[in-house]
Amino acid sequence: MKLGVDTSTNVLSIALEGSGLSANMEIRKKSAGSQQVAGIVEFLLQKLNKSASDIQEAYAGNGPGSFTGIRVALSFINTLSQTLRIPVASVSSLDLLAFGCGAWYTSVIPFIRSRRNEVFTAYYERGGRVTDYLVLDRDDFLTFIRERSPRTITAPDDELKDYAHLDLPGSFLASNPSARFIFSLADELKIEPEHGYLKPAYLRSF
């Protein structure tokens, strides 16, 4: 079985896949801890009639996003890796947001809000990221959207509403980094799990 976890936004997303079976859960959270993640993983394993020993690989979204949220996912996956001695891999939560919204092969700007009234963002086109990962304030982000003119702009719904009423190119789509797509994205980007320690991608120092 493969396990995927992303907690970079206000949605806790967990998925299991393997042996022709799959299960996933996404819940809104004000805060999350490793125990909550562990409880959901245990529930999904029971749903598939599997146990933790059946997990052979684990993946996590490593941000950018919520400072605390990212640490929860990576801490859980790193602990699981050490306990079960399984390989792990991380993917960008922005990549995951862009990939999972269905606009990966056209043009899309995903964004995740920062606590400093800025956004984490990048531009994707034809199945790949074109720009660096960026931290932009509101004015620079609006300029970025207008210059790139994407087909789709996507973000969690409570973050999207701050921009959806503005006259901007493209259509708005509420979405979140979903663990359901983390395995396909890893295959797409040729990311292979390895024995090691996953680190967060914060885009700025704290």
Structure description:
Helix 2 (67-84) links the parallel strand 4 and strand 5. The longest helix has 18 residues, at 67-84. The model has no long low-confidence stretch (mean pLDDT 94). The chain has helices at residues 34-47, 67-84, 93-100, 138-148, 157-160, 182-188; strands at 2-6, 11-18, 21-28, 57-61, 88-91, 107-113, 118-121, 124-125, 134-137, 152-155, 171-174. The chain is α/β, with parallel strands linked by helices and 206 residues long. The chain folds into 2 domains: 2-92 and 178-188, 2-Layer Sandwich (Nucleotidyltransferase, domain 5), CATH 3.30.420; 94-174, Nucleotidyltransferase, domain 5 (2-Layer Sandwich).
At the first level of CATH, the class of the largest domain is: Alpha Beta
Biggest sheet, in brief?
A: 6 strands, mixed
Radius of gyration: 17 Å
Q: How many structural domains does the protein architecture include?
A: 2
- Which of globular, elongated, flat, extended, rod-shaped describes the shape? elongated
CATH topology of the largest domain: Nucleotidyltransferase, domain 5
How big a fraction of the residues is strand? 25-35%
* SS element count, helices: 6
Provide key terms for this protein.
single chain, Nucleotidyltransferase, domain 5, 2 domains, 6-stranded mixed β-sheet, 11 strands
Compile the SSE list and pairings.
Blueprint: E1 2-6, E2 11-18, E3 21-28, H1 34-47, E4 57-61, H2 67-84, E5 88-91, H3 93-100, E6 107-113, E7 118-121, E8 124-125, E9 134-137, H4 138-148, E10 152-155, H5 157-160, E11 171-174, H6 182-188
Parallel strand pairs: 1-4, 4-5, 6-10, 10-11
Antiparallel strand pairs: 1-2, 2-3, 6-7, 6-8, 7-9
